[in-house]
Amino acid sequence: MLAKRIIPCLDVKDGQTVKGTNFLQLRQAGDPVELGKVYSTQGADELVFLDITASHEGRKTFTDMVQKVAAEVDIPFTVGGGISELRDVERMLNAGADKISVNSAALRRPELIDEIVRHFGSQVCVVAIDAQQKNGEWTCFLNGGRIPTDRNLFDWAREVNDRGAGEILFTSMNHDGVKQGFACDALSRLASELTIPVIASGGAGKMEDFRDVFLCGQADAALAASVFHFGQISIPELKEYLRNERINIRI
Question: Rounded to whole angstroms, how far apart are CA atoms 45 and 74?
Fold first, then answer.
């Protein structure tokens, strides 16, 4: 069985790492270059960098910031935000990214997934899905959780899978920043219906939440931000805890 992954996330706005609750009330969390360096040293399995306002503001991801972070980390590095065409993907890969994450652009034009997979390989293509549950239904959102769509989480995830994406990064908007645990029911359903890895995002508050997302949610990786940024959980201690809980994790 493949080892489970722990992935810190750098949500970047105006050159600073930020973190909010339910995609709102953003507060600063530090310099993304320094944070990336720390997480790489601490033993994070991968790092995700999301330019969270790029799509909403209609611009491209900050290439120079990506280059600076990439120069300081020696773990797989995923970059997302404002990526809408193959030239954007190539630009991010040339800047040092190992994978790219697409979200809004893929929802608007699903063929983008096929194009990325065809030109760069499925391992490069991560499709991020921001979804909110209301009245029992999970709805996908565009532009950093600002615009609802008519797409259902599970239907869209299956299409992403069938189009050849390498993995899915699912963020529950209901759980984001609340620190009460991940959306394990939705995650376990995704795991049962898909053939590609699922990264869980939204809800990490304590070490037990990571245990539950792997055992109950059947996630392949767990992504978190504020618990790492603000020192509530250290990655080495988390990995030791998970190993003691008999979860296959790289120490």
Answer: 10
